Predict the 3D structure of the following.
Amino acid sequence: MQNGTRLAAVDLGSNSFRLEIGRYEFGHIQRVEYLKETVRQGNGLDEDRNLTRDAMERGWACLARFGERLAGFPRAQVRAVATQTLREARNRDEFLARGSQMLGYPIDVVSGPEEARLIYQGVARLLPQSDERRLVVDIGGRSTELILGQQFVPHAVASYRVGSVAWSQRYFAAGEFTAQAFLAAEIAAKAVLDEALETFRPDTWEVAYGSSGTAGAVGDVLAAAGGPEGLITREGLQWLYERLLRAQSADRIRMDGLKEERRAVIGGGISVLRAVFDLLNIEQMQVAQGALRQGALYDLLDREQPGTDLRTSTVHGLMQRFAVDTEHADRVARTACALFDQAAPAGSERASRKLDWAARLHEIGCHISHSDYHRHGAYILDNTDASGFAVPELHRLGLLVLGQRGKVRKLDADLQDPVFALQLLSIRLAVALCHARREPDTDALALRVQGNRFLLEARRGWAASFPQSAHLLREEMQAWQKTPWELVVDLP
């Protein structure tokens, strides 16, 4: 990546949406612009876990404004990441479809562990180089992420469904602060976070950092009251708790350093932070400058550097974990990508890379059962936490794994995308050509696309040399009937 390249990250949090624009300079990203809007989408989940129309409208309006600012940015230089509220929302697809259109870029819903990994990257990149063992705590609107790491490497990540917005709604719904409400909120938070004790116990870290909204808000208030800049102490947290009790309600809080947008969720945030301090025996916590959006920016950078895309190593890790036949997976991946690259339009390198990952994982379901292994594989990819991958990316890989065999029509809705259709055909042809688990003669095959027609041609004599492969290709031609695509196989 060249110096001066601009990168942008959009963080769709439960309380606020944020846009960070940075400029790449000699391995670092310098902030150019930062925009934040309090959307409170986390308040917009109804009892059926659907986003209300008002909540969606607020989010779309914000994304439209961000989209205007991002106009002209190449797609590869923008990353939009959605977190817990959209992980929970049953009608998230409706929001994401229009939201992506308003923003002008796809929005990735990331899993809790992937959110934690990105948070750690953002925190670590903005800290001085050190070998200290770190605990990073990020209390968001509807989830809290805990990470153990050293330098740029997270060693343990976890995400828990407890946050400032959710806890404010549940325990301080009327905006009233009482000792009983705080006690109930803290007990509930500890019940959710209790399993963190096994991994994040005090002897596993040396310095605690707090990132994102709650930690930043508490740090600002304590500093305005004369405390050390950027430091949250147990004593300071107790002082703030007592101030809230004296105020009795959110609308009566008068404290320097507390922004108006934080007033409605400060009770929930403080109760969760106090629970974390007690549970993990934290005496003091430094307020980190980095957060999820900076992690997303550096993740964009890593994806563009040869050999540094975390997703590739994650795929290899999944192959090992599910005992995939590596030699055969490599063979199918090479074959699929060779066919795809013949027919794909210029600029399809990313799609080819994703096809490679899907092909390497095409037998991942065999670890469960060889019968219907393609269905098991798709299920695994839809329900696994995979570092570097967003939820939609894993689902897309799962569709390719699911569609490698059987009826093509089961993926009819996705076949409207010509790139996906070509990826699907390529993996299906590769699986067929590698049926004998040996290297196929793909040099004798040529794949082209003409409108909605795929043309696969073989060199004269190829079918006679490989009669079983020729039979499978003719069967594949039948499989594409009654789809939006036609496959024509010419085997002279």
